Every structure is written in structure tokens, then in C-alpha cells.
Amino acid sequence: MKSSYPLFFLLLLAIVSWQACDNDKNNPATTPTVTTNEPKEKVEPARSTPLAPKEGFKIQKGVYIERPTPEALKEENPYNLDNKIFLENRSFTYSYVHYRQDGTPIYCRSVYSSGKGVPRDKAWIYQPVDEVTDETITKVRFSVAEGLGRRGNLLKNKDRTFLVYENLAYTGDVKFRALVGMVENSQNVWLIPFRSQLFNLLHSSPYPYVRAPIEVGNTWEWENEVHNRFTDPRWGEWQEPEAMKYTYEITEKKQIDSKLGLLECFEVKATGGGLIGRSSLVALFNKEYGFIRLSFQNINGTATVFELEEVKNMEPPKKGGTNGK
Fold first, then answer.
1. Helices vs. strands in the chain: H and E counts, helices first
2. pLDDT for 12-39, tens place per residue?
3. Angle, vertex CA 75, rays to CA 71 and CA 80, nearest 5
């Protein structure tokens, strides 16, 4: 008769191993600092060499920034002067849809209420697209600021064109507003994604970025640190800024039937990531209107798609008005 001891010991070992794994999951000391729905994967260092110096430009965080002439520095914002797309007092309005991991389309709804201790940019919930309310964010808009006025004292990097970002409710009301910088010059166009509420997720994806020469086949790399203020339990939490590295390529030139008409666009694809996950972006760039469409694949397996619907030239603000002059 064969002994049953080997089978007994195998069963005992399996039970002990299962209990150990279960204890590890509930032990804070063994829980990783970074938590997302994607596997943690190390990313190889960027393959490109540093940007080559160019006369009239400085390099900051992988982006060319123009050096204004002494005459231009007399202007309130000299970094707006050479813009071809992002002109002062010009606004760009985008529609968007966010897609869950299963492909379900969804919106973001603001639930901010003063005095409850929740920051405004964290006070939001998912909202089904067929259950829109007065608080549902259905569009986003940014406008090019005409100078900075009093706000300039609050900004760390002043060598930018500044955009006023706004999250718009179904009613057209502004539910969140922020001031951020972007870069446009003959060497590159670099844009900070929409931010706050649901859109904080986009800061762990490649930023909209196109570099000269704007032609099919051009490639480049860019690195970013994602600050922990952009964390959220709905997609991931990390304690310190996390490095993300991306490779960009202009893959195609094509005609796009857009909300602004038939436009010639360059398709820009970016992929990469870091310890908090992997992400990608497919952007359609037009030399007159900028980014016509932005399709983000996010670190938690969701997707967010923006489409430019309107470009509008606004009246300059009055002296002493919201522009702070």
C-alpha cells in the first residue's frame, strides 16, 4: 500500500503558502507605494541625445523656448509675439468623451461644495452620457491670455504663453478654471493637457507635443515627472513625482473631415510610461488650428478623446478687468 504522507504534506504546504500571500496583501508594510490597475514596468532610458543648442532658444525640460529680443521684452508677454496658432484672446473649445475599460462612454460631473474640505479639482464623480445634469462637464476650453498682469507674480515659469483652462458644464457654466503655460515657436508646439477633476489623469500620459521639422518620419523623445497631486484612487496613487518617458513620431499626413471643415493634419503618435503604468497618445495636428483631435490611452486602461469644435477670436479684456492690468 502506497503512503499518503507525500500528498498530505503537499496539501499542507499549499495552505500555508495561500495564507502567507493573503497576509502580504493586508500588510501595509508590503503594499507597494504606487498602485494602479496596470503592471509596474521599468522603462529604458530615452534613446535620444540631448537637444542641440539653437541660436535664439534655450532648452528647458526637453522643449525649445525662445529668447525674446530686448525690444520684445518690453511687451507684457513677449512669448506671445511669435505665435501663429495660439494668438492672444483666441479660444479653443473641445468636446470630449471618456471611455471605461469596457468601452462604456462616460462624462465627469462636478460635485464641489464649499466648506466640505474636498479640493475643487478632486470633487467629481463619473456621469453616464445619457444622464447629463447641470453639473456635468461636457466640454473644455482654453483661451490665450493677453499678458499676465497681477497673476504673473504667482507663476514659477513666466517664459510661456499662458492659457486659461476651463471645464464647462452642459449649461455653459464654468465649473473649474486654471492658468497654465504652453510653448509655441518655430521649433516646437508643446501643450499641457487639460487638468483638474477627471482630467488630472491625463498628466500621466504623453503631452500634446510636435517638433520641427513637421514632416512624416520625424521622431523625438520627451521625459516628464508626474506630480503626486495628480493621483486619485480611481486610477492610481503615488507618494512622490514619478518619471515617465515617451517616444514621439509623426506617422502620417492626411486630410481630416473635422468640425472646422476639411483640414490637412499630421498624425503624431506617442507611447511610453514608467513605474505607474504605460500610456499613449494619438494626436492630429494642423498648422493653423493646432491639435484637432487628441486620443489618450491612460495608465488605468481607460481612454479619453477630445475633438476641437470651435476656434473663436474674443474681444480683448478691458483695462482693469479680469486680465489684471
1. 1, 18
2. 333 333 343 334 333 333 222 333 344 4
3. 105
Residue 283: the pLDDT is 98
Alpha helices per DSSP H over 108-260 = none
Burial of 137-175, coded b for 16+ CB within 10 Å and e otherwise, reads bbbbbbbbbbbbbeeeeeeeeebbbbbbbbbbbbeeeeb
Query: Which residues of the chain carry a pLDDT beneath 70?
Result: 1-50, 112-121, 147-157, 317-325
- Do residues 182 and 86 lie in contact, with contact meaning Cβ atoms separated by under 8 Å? yes
For residues 113 and 311, give the distance between their C-alpha atoms in angstroms, rounded to a whole number.
32
The answer to whether 65 and 57 have CB atoms below 8 angstroms apart is: yes
Residue 204: its pLDDT value, please?
92
Residue with cell 465627469: 108
Distance, in Å, from the CA atom of 310 to the CA atom of 307, rounded to the nearest integer, reads 9
What DSSP line would sit under 249-314, residue for residue? Answer: EEEEEEEEEETTEEEEEEEEEEEEEETTEEEEEEEEEETTTEEEEEEEE-TTS-EEEEEEEEEEEP
